[in-house]
Amino acid sequence: MKLITKNTDYAIRALMTLASDRDRFFSAKEIAGIQDIPYHYLRSILQILTKNALIKSREGVGGGVKLIASPSRIHVSDLIIMFQGDADPGECLVKGRICSNHQTCVLRHEIKRIERMIQNQFGKITIQTLLNKEKN
Amino acid sequence: MKLITKNTDYAIRALMTLASDRDRFFSAKEIAGIQDIPYHYLRSILQILTKNALIKSREGVGGGVKLIASPSRIHVSDLIIMFQGDADPGECLVKGRICSNHQTCVLRHEIKRIERMIQNQFGKITIQTLLNKEKN
DNA sequence: ATAACTGATACTATATTGGTATCATTAAGC
DNA sequence: GCTTAATGATACCAATATAGTATCAGTTAT
Questions:
Q1: Gap from A117 CA to D8 C1', in Å?
Q2: Using one digit for the tens of pLDDT, what is the confidence trace for B83-95?
Q3: Which of A72, B9, B72, B125 could lock onto A128 through a cystine, CB 3.0 to 4.6 A?
Q4: Per-residue exposure over B4-32, b if at least 16 CB sit within 10 Å of its own CB, e if not
């Protein structure tokens, strides 16, 4: 059961690095080195984070990316949605007679409930809480 | 976030059909028709259920498969493990410095906790509870 | 004997995820 | 201004996992 894909994972780690020094710009190359993330792949991830205004970028020599959102306001649930999409696109897994007879399918209902619970759990985890736990 | 894959879903539906009449054999063809599941794919799923002793099979004319486990003892969590494997095979998602510096990685720890919670939730759902909810 | 079934197994197709490459543009600093 | 170090945009490729198909051998009721 893969809850978190690599791009989400890489995003979290990049953000943790950025949170370690909020005032300066880190280049993608630098972050890739620190976190051992493939450079080009990381670049595409950073672009998404930039578009979602969690970080800002500066081009040119001495440029890079820098955290602009507060680490305590960046929830892992947001990153999951950002990189893994908003769960399944409303499609009913259980087709066939059961569903057509009963309109709403019981299994699907249970799955939805558990998905909400998961998102709720990941919503409680922020970049800040991860940093805090790391320092124990 | 795909919690349940199609083979698990198909297995659940097949078992619900079998639970609807525990005394007789259903052929794969029949179940495929009732649940609108691709015949050959369903056959491979039924073979796995047979090997795991949830159902028993009878070859030849008039054969098929029949439920042997009690619907209230078949937990969706078991089926998830059966068809989707035992979560991730112990591999740490967060490699690089964070992990090597701190031995155990904080994100991984949180993910593991949530995974246990999910399995616990799916452990509370059985074929029987699904059937009960369906009949409301 | 035949027809209806499962067992075993190999194969193919599709989708998702992970990763790479390239060219254009920007900006610092000599 | 030229060079260099950086991102923006975008297209492409590879690897893996999931979903689905096909076939042949063996079994059993009639």
A1: 37
A2: 998 655 445 544 4
A3: A72
A4: beebbbbbbbbbbbbbeeeeebbebeebb
| Nearest residue, CA→C1' of D23 | B40
CA distance A57 to A52: 12
Say what the pTM is: 0.90
Q: Please, what CATH class does the domain formed by B6-86+126-134 belong to?
A: mainly alpha
pLDDT at A100 over 90: no
CB contact under 8 A, B1 and A114: no
Footprint of strand C on the protein (CB under 7 A): A 5-7, 10, 38-41, 43-44, 58-63, 84-85; B 2, 27-29, 43-44, 46-47, 50-51, 57-65
Domain coordinates of chain B in residue numbers? 6-86+126-134
